[in-house]
Amino acid sequence: MTRPGFRRPPTAQEAVLSELRLAIVTGELRPGEQVLQDALAERFGVSRVPLREALKILEGEGQVIYRPHRGYFVAELDLGDLREVYQIRDLLESESVRVAVPRITAEEIAALAADLEEVERASAAGDLVGMASANRRFHFGLIEAARMPRLMRLVRVLWDATDVYRSLYYADVTHREAVHDEHRQALDAIRRGDAEHAVVLLRQHRERAVTTLERLLSGGT
Amino acid sequence: MTRPGFRRPPTAQEAVLSELRLAIVTGELRPGEQVLQDALAERFGVSRVPLREALKILEGEGQVIYRPHRGYFVAELDLGDLREVYQIRDLLESESVRVAVPRITAEEIAALAADLEEVERASAAGDLVGMASANRRFHFGLIEAARMPRLMRLVRVLWDATDVYRSLYYADVTHREAVHDEHRQALDAIRRGDAEHAVVLLRQHRERAVTTLERLLSGGT
DNA sequence: TGACCGAGAATTGGATACAATCTCCACTTC
DNA sequence: GAAGTGGAGATTGTATCCAATTCTCGGTCA
C-alpha cells in the first residue's frame, strides 16, 4: 500500500532533478560553480546519462547555464536579474489574479485560508521550510484558480529562480510578520471578489520583498 | 576560413535540436504523434543519447510532452491553448515595448525599418519562409531593445509554440497585406517615442491574427 | 460478446566504454 | 620576460549494450 499523493520518482532522471533543485536552493551547489558530472552522478548513485537529462531541464529553467564542451554551471542571479524576475512576476501574477478571482470556488478559498494558517503556524514555530512550502501553496493555489496552466508554469519557473533570495527574506522574523498581514488582507479582497484590490495588495507584497532584498544585498555582502 | 556569424553546431544534440524544431514546425512530426527515438536517431545519424537531450529542451519549452516509460509526444495546441499563449504574449510583449521604446537607439530603429522592408519584399515574392524570419527579426529586434533577456526568452518560447499557426495565418495574401500596414504604423509610433500607441497598435496586430485564426480553426477543422 | 490474462515484441531508461574537446602547465622561442 | 606551443590529464559528448517497462495481440473464461 502506497499512500496517495506520494510516489517516488519512476525514473532516475526525475529523482536526480529534485536532488539537484534541492542542492541549488540550499546553496550546496554555489552560483557560478561548475557541475562536475562524474562526481555528482556518483554521489547520487546513477550514471551521467540521467544526470545530464535533469541538467537539461534546469537549463531550460535558467537554473544552470550550459556551455558546449565546458559543462553546466550554476546560474548566478545578480540584482538586475532579481529585478527583472520580479518585474515579470508582477505582470504574470497580476493577470492571473484578475482572471482567478471571478472564477475561484468556495473550496479553493477555504484551501487558501488553510494554507495561510499553516504559514503562520510554521512561521511562529520557526519552521522555515514548512512555512516556505505553505506560502508557496497559498500563492499557487490562487494562481491555479485562473485555470491557465502555461501561465502558472511560467510563474513557477520564476519562483524557482529566486528561491534562494526568498528564504533569505523570510529568515527575518519582522519580515515574516509583515507578510502575515499582507496575506490576510489579500485573502479578504479575494473573498470580497475585489480582484483589483487583491492585485494591488499582492503587488505591494512583492514590492516590499524586492526592495528589502535590494537593500540587504547591495548593503551587506 | 569560416565566415563570421556562421558556425555548425558544436554538438550533436544542438544539431538534432534544430532539426527537431524544423520537423515540428513543418508538421513532419504531427501533434500528438509519438517521437520514436530509434527511428529518429537513425534518421539524424546519431545515437539516442543526444536526441534525448534535445527532447528534454523541447519538453521544457512545451513543444513535446514527456511521459515516463512512454516516451515523448509532440504537443497538441488546441484553441484554448492558443488563446492562453496570446494572452500571455500580450502581457509580456506590451511590457517589453513600454520598456524598449524609451531606450531604443537610432541604429536599432534603422534595423527595424530594414526588417520591415525585407518582410514586404519576401511577402510580395511569395517567399513565406523568408518573410517569417524577417517578421521575427522585426518583432524581436524591438523586444531586444528592452534589454530584458529573460523576458525575451519567455516571448521566444511562446512564439515557437505557435509557429505552426502563424504560418497558417500568413499563408493568406490579404492577411499579409494587412500586416504590412500594422507594422508600418507601429514603427511610426516607435519613432515618435509614443510607447503607449505602439502598445495599442501591436496589441491590435496580435488580436487580429488570433481572432482570424479562431475563425479559421473552429470553422474549417 | 466482452473482460481478463500473459507471453513476446517494441520501446524506453540507464550503465559502461570510448571518442572528442578543453584546461593547464612545463617548455621553447623570440 | 612575454608570447606561443605541445602534450598529459581532466572533463564532456556520444555510441553501444543491456535492463526495465509498456504495448500488442492472441487465447481463455465468465
Model description:
The structure is a homodimer of 221-residue chains. The first copy, chain A, has 221 residues and is mostly helical. The first copy, chain A, is 73% helix and 5% strand. Chain A has ten helices and three strands. The first copy, chain A, has helices at 12-25, 37-44, 48-60, 79-103, 106-124, 128-144, 149-161, 163-170, 173-192, 195-219; strands at residues 34-35, 64-67, 71-74. Chain A has a three-stranded antiparallel sheet with strand order 1-3-2, with helices on one face. In chain A, a hairpin with a 3-residue loop joins strand 2 (64-67) and strand 3. In chain A, helix 5 (106-124) runs antiparallel to helix 6. The longest helix of chain A is centred in the middle third of the chain and has 25 residues, at 79-103. Chain A is globular, with a radius of gyration of 19 Å. The termini of chain A are far apart. The A-B interface holds A 10-11, 14, 49, 52-53, 56-57, 59-62, 68-69, 81, 84-85, 87-88, 91-92, 95, 148-151, 153-154 and B 10-11, 14, 49, 52-53, 56-57, 59-62, 68-69, 81, 84-85, 87-88, 91-92, 95, 148-151, 153-154. The structure holds a DNA duplex (30 and 30 nucleotides).
